[in-house]
Amino acid sequence: MVTSRDVARLAGVSQMTVSRVLQGSTKVAAGTRDRVLAAMRESGYQPNAAARTMRTRRTATIGVVVADITNPFYPQLLEAVGRALGEAGQRMVLWNAPDSGGTSALEALDEGTVDGLLFTTATETSPGLADAVERGQPIALLHRGLDGLDCDQVTTDNVAGGRAVADYLVGTGHTRIGFLAGPDLPATARHRERGFRDRLAELGHPLADPLVARGGFSHDVARSATRDLLSRQDPPTAVFCANDLTALGAVDGAVSLGKRVPADVWVVGYDDIAMTSWDSYDLTTVRQPIADMSRAAVRLLLARIDDRDRPARVEEFPCELVVRGSTAGTPQPSAVDT
Amino acid sequence: MVTSRDVARLAGVSQMTVSRVLQGSTKVAAGTRDRVLAAMRESGYQPNAAARTMRTRRTATIGVVVADITNPFYPQLLEAVGRALGEAGQRMVLWNAPDSGGTSALEALDEGTVDGLLFTTATETSPGLADAVERGQPIALLHRGLDGLDCDQVTTDNVAGGRAVADYLVGTGHTRIGFLAGPDLPATARHRERGFRDRLAELGHPLADPLVARGGFSHDVARSATRDLLSRQDPPTAVFCANDLTALGAVDGAVSLGKRVPADVWVVGYDDIAMTSWDSYDLTTVRQPIADMSRAAVRLLLARIDDRDRPARVEEFPCELVVRGSTAGTPQPSAVDT
DNA sequence: ACCTGCGATGTTTACGTACACATCGCACGG
DNA sequence: CCGTGCGATGTGTACGTAAACATCGCAGGT
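Output (structure tokens, whole complex):
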């Protein structure tokens, strides 16, 4: 292995001067710098990350925790986060945490493997998360927030999103409206439900319990829940789903019963994943500005790494209803009493 | 920060004994070990990864390079790879390399940030890849192989997969068969095409140039290419697509023209991503054993990290045709001359 | 011509861990 | 009863870098 000492010897300078060139310090004469750079190239020198980290206590690496990478929303978010991190000169370590919620990511943070963590799927039950935040570890939440947690958070106004969908569906004449709720824990799911439910009630069409199905964030569960819902005597004329993956499942549930979207039932999703715009689904949904959000989260996290005592900030981005074919045409009040 | 020295002081032993306990060395008396473990807990000690890496030259981290994480195949592969790495006690650093093909991943390898690299989307043009392999860097290819490269590779028999599709389509009576080719560079796309093309020729129905569309691996390109193909005077009765993402694009292209799959045209994909089994697509495709492949790739890579001089191995897994609704029923020779 | 001051470079050291080697003590055999 | 050997533990050091401090030389002012 070639070390900075070897380069120094080759260039006829001290190791420290090599180190200075490496860091782009201005305190090096142009001629010397050129000599050192030439020696680096000649020897094929590569700085050793571990040694540098040991001295500087920086890894230039951020850990990102995701609950389920096969939910297409997360790859899209990861791409945006990866881009934002790249722009900031940081690498990304990925934890796809099936259930535990990133315990090993927190360990990595304690060990100094990463400089900070970005949780995209935090919940109240994420073990050790609150504890790590209290210890002052640089942790930021992206996408899913946590009300009780005093750390940097970047979210969207999921309550407003849910309300917008309620306004839209009631405004287009629907009265018997179904809801495919997500899991209980994620704040995203809870806020969307709250906004949707409250606004429906305000508009005089409160959600009817029999038309609410609880389930996970998976296609399969949503599909079978929708089959149940649509097989009822008085099926809903529109179904709002806690996220796009479940909305796609809802469409497929309808398709599997030979029903058509939107002719027989309207479907609305949430997140605007790429597939929602594909012809086979053409799904009305709510868009989050994930690129801006990712940049904001990275900015907050890096700022916290530099200054652990700065006050935590919560940034909430607006979201936007995107109307597509899954809610086209007029609703079908004719289907009310069969 | 609590160091092993602090723990040693607290436990009344030397720093070395703490280190030994940490490594699970047997050369520590049970009583001593208990005292050290208690001191660790009490002090909240966390071993420092950078210092350990500096001594051991190991990071227990593997870099994974992916070309496009928004192609749903890669999240599925990443999940499998992540699981295999987790089982082997390794972390995963992710590079989503838009174009450059993982140059910065190779830098990280040189710097010692990762112990090895797993390329899932290598091509001949991946800059620096061949060079790094020749320098003996631990690099393995998963999914996409590279014929000229002397390194560990885990692939599927894409030629056989292409042939199987040709056999299937001709065997079910299709003669005017279209092909949506992937990009030129990936070995996966090339091998699938070769197998498909050669077998069709052997069976007496060579691929007709006008029915071949070249494009990328994206939904949009595939969609518009399919619209062109199906708008011809003599459209194909079946279309084989270089991967599932393009097959979904092909289905959507057909849908956008008001055509039905499989009634108007059969569509076959490749990779068996989760969405292919959803009702709206129900796509016939070719399945790769990605879990087994991931484990194999991780095993090979870790073995190489331990012994850089071991001979490179190439493991080729079989793939399996999965027939679904996109190729159901009889083909439509009636559509031949319109 | 001499002193001052600053820019350029060198010297020393520490970061936290694990390896090589040294040492200690005790059990067992002759 | 003493020597041998081995298991348990300690001592010293090196990994490669960057920070703090020291030093050197030269330009500019008086």
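Chain B has a mean pLDDT of 92.
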